[in-house]
Amino acid sequence: MMTLVDIKEQIESIDQQIINLLEERTHACSGQNLSSDEEVEMLSLWLEEAAEKGLDDARMEKIAKFVIAMCRDASE
């Protein structure tokens, strides 16, 4: 059974991975201007994946829109 310390360490590790992936994604988007259709396509992918994994649609939509906006800002 995992202790509270083990769980905290695991969550911190996952959070670091998320941060690293967001940085990588932002760099990949840098200089790329996506059309609104491409952004809608990305959002749809996020929502499909979230549904398959049983994640909350409304929350995942907010996260996806935030991530897409980060990339949009990086490309400006």
Architecture overview:
The protein has 76 residues and is mainly α. It has one domain (4-74). Helices cover 80% and strands 0% of the residues. It is built from three helices and no strands. The longest helix is centred in the N-terminal third of the chain and has 26 residues, at 4-29. The chain is flat, with a radius of gyration of 15 Å.
What tags apply to this protein structure?
single chain, 76 residues, mainly alpha
Give a brief outline of the structure.
This protein has about 80 residues and is mostly helical.
Q: What order do the helices and strands follow?
A: HHH
Based on CA inertia axes, which overall geometry fits?
flat
Total number of domains? 1
Helix fraction bin: over 70%
- Cα-atom Rg, whole angstroms? 15 Å
Extract low-pLDDT stretches: none
Secondary structural class: mainly alpha
Instruction: Report the β-strand fraction as a percent range.
Output: under 5%
Main sheet characteristics: none
Q: What is the terminal-to-terminal distance? A: 48 Å
Question: How many DSSP E strands?
Answer: 0
Query: What is the overall number of helices?
Result: 3
Mean pLDDT: 94
In terms of topology, how is this protein built?
Elements: H1 4-29, H2 36-52, H3 57-74
